[in-house]
Amino acid sequence: MLGRDPNVADGRLSMENTNKALIVLLLIAGGVYICLTRAPASEDKSGFDVLNWPPNRTEMCSLVAAHGTDPHTPAGLAARERYVTLFKKRYRAHDPMMAIGLRFPPSGPLDLLTPARMEPWSMDRLAVNAWQETRQAFGHPFDIDLYITYIGSAPIKVGELRMAKDSPNNLEIVHFKQPIIKSRERGVAVRN
Fold this sequence. Notes:
- This protein is of the alpha+beta class.
- The chain has helices at 15-37, 57-65, 74-92, 120-138; strands spanning 8-9, 12-13, 101-103, 110-115, 144-149, 156-163, 171-182, 189-191.
- The chain folds into two domains: 8-37; 50-191, no CATH class.
């Protein structure tokens, strides 16, 4: 008979062809599943989308504005303390918890405290976010010093975030080759 497939006997597929067809069908189904369940292109794939973690920037700025922003008044100091509390809560109440801290020293730049194992680009994102939030909440920009922390030891200054000299809307982040250890007793910096 013309047109008869040698692999088909009595109108049925052979066992070998059935297995091949089943493997192809499983591969196609797996590919469709992966395409349907993967994250959209606009989603932050690093898992470090801090802008959407509560409390968000709008909530923090409104809570700070309720206290006032003048650092020379008790209400202004309370606003700074409230901001630091909310900032820490954002990272420490998140799952997984991150030991992130922020300090307003009496004078000088803010201190951003991060875990020692944090990647520099994640530290940079935190610093830029803190700079934008504090500028919006308190009405002026702050310089930020970047520190890494180890349990039971003094923070180690590893970098700085500063406004660019040529443009106040551009930021410069510098990471030091040799970190600076801040002494807890005397408040002095020691370069290693």
